[in-house]
Amino acid sequence: MTLKLAIATFVGAFIFPFLIRLLWGKMVENWGAIGGWMAAGFIVGTTWLLNHGIGMINQSGKAWIDMAWAAGTGLIAASVYSGDKFKKAIPTIACAVVGGVFAGFMLSLFL
Question: Is the whole-model pTM more than 0.70?
């Protein structure tokens, strides 16, 4: 991977958790549950289009990385940086890893 592709991948991965942290809570506060649905469509849709449609994220090799890894690591980093405790997130992270492994296994049965 070239330096230009690495920078584009990093920026593409940064945009997703940044927009989640910046907008999602405000949209839910202002518009309630429908704001959450709108945030999901707007934030996830826009960043998916940037990362995969336009191609900001470049995946080399056989490993496939989902945007959820970018969101998870970015939001954990932002939370720890703002003073939250990482230890409180460990059960959620463990459940997400188990669910991701299970989903990956199920997907491998069909491919």
Answer: yes
